[in-house]
Amino acid sequence: MSEADLPVALEAARAGAAEVASGVDRRVEVRYKADADPVTEVDHRSESAILDVISRRRPRDPVLGEERGGRLPEDGRVWLVDPLDGTTNFVHGFPWVSVSVALWIDNAPAVGVVLDVITGDEYTAVTGGGARANGSPIAVSSVEDFGEALVVTGFPYEWRERIEVCDTRFRRVLGTAQGVRRLGAASLDMCMVARGRMDGYWEEDLPPWDMGAGTLLVTEAGGTVSDRSGRPVGPSGGFVVASNGRIHHQFLDTLGEPGLTERLP
Predict the structure, then answer these.
(1) Angle between helices 2-22 and 41-57 (to 10 degrees)
(2) Strand locations in the chain, DSSP E?
(3) Residues in Cβ contact with 191 at an 8 Å cutoff, skipping those fewer than 6 apart
(4) Of the chain's two ends, which shows fewer C-beta atoms within 10 Å, N or C?
(5) Are residues 111 and 49 in the same domain?
(6) CATH number at residue 225
(7) CA R_g for the chain
(8) Which residues are 98's β-sheet partners?
(9) Least confident among 17-31, 126-140, 147-161, 204-218
């Protein structure tokens, strides 16, 4: 059934991306859900367009979206929707924004679509079918030494409250990897790992809609996605570590012990 759901995910993501594209380089009203968590009318328009497609094509399926919310069922099907990943970038005109639509079935990713609104690149994956960019197969990088890796990260919106933890992990990676980037759109960051342009990615407290599609894209491209302890990531998100697989254990070791968050003041 997953292959039959890919056209639905694509149609929904394209509908959302059209709304986001219409607001690029235009003045938009910005509100804040939290200290550093902006939302615009474009976020809402995009999510409405996405939900319109899903409700028409898959009317019985539950949806968990960033703006309208929802709930995660214990099992079965659920759509995870980020209508505008990189809202802060969008507000400032920084060209790193995307739309992410994913279908998870029985707590495992089944379909993932991420659209780069600025370039128009479309990233798609179906369980067992590999990952693609604009219809062509993609694969993770071949880097085997974490010291030669280029990795990307993000910070939780509440990072100011946990600055010592975030700073400690960042310093560990910065002092070990070849380079670290922070770009501001988790779904696109994970696409870069899937495409082999980045070798790894990590972020704490990642919400479901941010990692729903990217998780499948990375694994179908031959990479590995886990939590900090190396366990599989579920649809609720959390601490997500993605890599080409070859550097994964080195990556986890560099990030530090699982109990770091609880032990630091």
Answers:
(1) 150
(2) 30-34, 37-40, 63-65, 77-85, 98-105, 108-116, 122-126, 131-133, 136-137, 150-153, 179-182, 200-206, 224-226, 238-243
(3) 98, 114, 116, 121, 123, 133, 214, 217
(4) C
(5) yes
(6) 3.40.190.80
(7) 17
(8) 85, 116
(9) 147-161
Inter-helix orientation angle 208-220/186-194, to 10°: 0
Chain centroid offset of residue 261 CA: 22
Q: What's the pTM value of the predicted model, to 2 decimals?
A: 0.92
Of 95, 117, 137, the residue that ends a domain is 137
Place of tokens 């919310």: 69
Residue 111's domain spans which residues?
A: 2-137
At residue 162, what is the residue type? R
Express each pLDDT in 67-98 by its tens digit.
888 888 888 999 999 999 999 999 999 999 99
C-alpha 233/C-alpha 167 separation (Å) is 23
In this predicted structure, the answer to whether residue 111 has a pLDDT above a threshold of 90 is yes
- The residue type at 192: M
Task: Report the distance separating Cα 164 and Cα 203, nearest Å.
Answer: 15
| Residues linked to residue 99 through DSSP beta bridges, in sequence order | 115
Question: What letter represents residue 35's amino acid?
Answer: D
Helix axes 163-174, 248-255, angle to 10 degrees: 140
Tokens matching residue 7: 């056209």
Q: Give me the sign of the Cα torsion angle 9, 11, 12, 17.
A: positive
Specify whether the CB–CB gap between 120 and 20 falls below 8 A: no
Do 150 and 124 share a structural domain? no
Q: What residues contact 231, with CB distance under 8 A and at least 6 apart?
A: none
